[in-house]
Amino acid sequence: MAELQRQTEIFDSLPYYDDDLQKYPSLKERVEQELARQPKPPSTVHPRVPPPYELFAKNPLLRAELERVESHQPFPSLDTLRYQLPAPTSTPATDEEWRDALQNARAQLEHQRIRQTNLTLLQTYGPNAWRIHNYLLEAMAKQTEKTLEDLKQLTVEINRDRKNTQDKFGKQLNTLETRWTELISSVLQIEMANVALDAEVERINKKEAELSEP
Q1: Which tops the pLDDT comparison, 96 or 20?
Q2: Could you tell me which of 88, 178, 181, 213 has the fewest CB atoms within 10 Å of its CB?
Q3: Residue 188: which pLDDT band, with cuts at 50, 70 and 90?
Q4: Which residues form a coiled coil (predicted)?
Q5: Does residue 92 have a cis bond before it (omega within 30 degrees)?
Q6: Does residue 58 contact residue 81 with C-beta atoms inside 8 Å?
């Protein structure tokens, strides 16, 4: 339990109240020099910071594409071999080479047939599918924008609360500092009065001793 409390403690400064660095530029330079001499902070993040989110963890193709874009690698060139019908290169060609060429031609023909079928399906159902897709994207974009606005508003409210809290604490600190100064001044005055009284008592004792002598 004690370990958990130590991990969840947050020490906040009072940037809305402590403005000495802005008032005194020389003090800011001294602080920067002192910070430069300090050791670097640990690389570990705060326990409340969530772990990094791994994109496309279950989709290796999209993950590989994301890594390619992040590394600024060029997009791989299109494979145009599938759109070609190469004939046997040897003369005369063997039966196996002609069978391979014929098989490739049949594969190309089937590929073109599938493309034609897909184009027909796209012309029939594509517009509505794209409208639905765009509608979903717009709804998602609006939801994302609303979430962003809510986060901005929450940030503003948190900063406002921090400023109000720090202003309140700052006034309390000013009051306590003023009271502390008054108490210190009173203590100094009392000490000075004690010193004066000690000197007066000593003077009276000396005077009494002088008068008591024959």
Answers
A1: 96
A2: 213
A3: very high
A4: 137-210
A5: yes
A6: no
Q: How far apart are CA 99 and CA 101, in angstroms?
A: 5
Dist. CA 178–CA 201, nearest whole Å: 34
Total residues found in the chain within this entry? 214
Give residue 9's pLDDT. 53
Q: b/e string for 49-71 if b means 16 or more Cβ within 10 A?
A: eeeeeeeeeeeeeeeeeeeeeee
Using an 8 Å Cβ cutoff, are 17 and 170 in contact? Answer: yes
Q: Is the pLDDT of residue 195 over 50?
A: yes
Convert the pLDDT of each residue in 41-58 to its tens digit: 777 877 888 888 888 889
Q: Is the pLDDT reported for residue 141 higher than 60?
A: yes
Q: What pLDDT does residue 27 have?
A: 80
Q: How far apart are CA 15 and CA 146, in angstroms?
A: 30
| Least confident residue range of 64-73, 82-91, 168-177 | 82-91
